[in-house]
Design goal:
This protein is α+β, with helices and mostly antiparallel strands and 136 residues long. It is built from two helices and nine strands. Helix 1 (9-22) crosses helix 2 (72-87). The longest helix has 16 residues, at 72-87.
């Protein structure tokens, strides 16, 4: 039996983008979400980085690093909101579990990201994402 594991980075980006867009919270509005920083920085940005991980032949367990940039007043709240969204996202299609969250904590950027006249604060957290493989 040959098992192929699905890509999950795009799924996580879509889950975050959809949840933040639907959120009534002011600090969750206008967030740019993707696997890389946009060419033109925005006032609120989230990146999803796949750091890989093992599989057991049935499921893959990948470690992800999530970076969040926003104004001082919003950065930690936005990171905590992203964590809450990702804790509740397993649906079996293909994500079966999220766990082992660590953070968020502040990262010092050099040089600092500035949008308009606002200096952005960089927060970071990690999690593990399990996804079911399928026969091919």
């Amino acid at each position: 039996m040959n098992i192929i594991f699905p890509p999950t980075t795009g799924k996580l980006c879509t889950i975050l983008r959809t949840a933040l867009t639907a959120s009534p919270l002011a600090f969750a509005s206008g967030v740019t979400v993707g696997p890389e920083l946009p060419a033109t920085h925005t006032a609120r940005m989230v990146t999803v980085r796949d750091d890989s991980g093992p599989d057991d032949g049935v499921q893959t367990r990948r470690r992800y690093g999530i970076n969040v940039w926003a104004a001082q007043a919003d950065a930690e709240l936005l990171a905590l909101t992203c964590m809450a969204v990702l804790r509740s996202c397993p649906d079996g299609q293909p994500i079966t579990a999220t766990d082992s969250f660590s953070g968020p904590y502040q990262v010092a950027d050099d040089p600092k990201y500035v949008v308009g006249s606002t200096e952005l604060v960089h927060m970071f957290f990690t999690l593990r994402v399990s996804a079911r493989g399928s026969d091919y």
